[in-house]
Amino acid sequence: MLNGPEIPLMVLFVSLATVFVLRGPFGRALAERLSGRARTGAEDQDVQELKGEVEELRTQLADVQERLDFAERVLARRDDRADALPKGAAERR
What we know:
Layout: H1 6-22, H2 25-35, H3 41-84, H4 87-92
């Protein structure tokens, strides 16, 4: 167990370390987050632009998925037709 001057020194060290960390960029960011400051207009505009880009990418992804599904169906039909041909007709190709 800790007895004597170790406990006050440990408390002092932890307190100084906490003050040092909280006075830096991390502390400022934490204070802004806790105070609930509103974002600036530029930040709101950036967020709206990013949301628009994400929506556009979602639309493009949906289009690509539809095209992939179509290509898979076409290839599956081609394979089904090749299996359905008589052996002699398949060899003549």
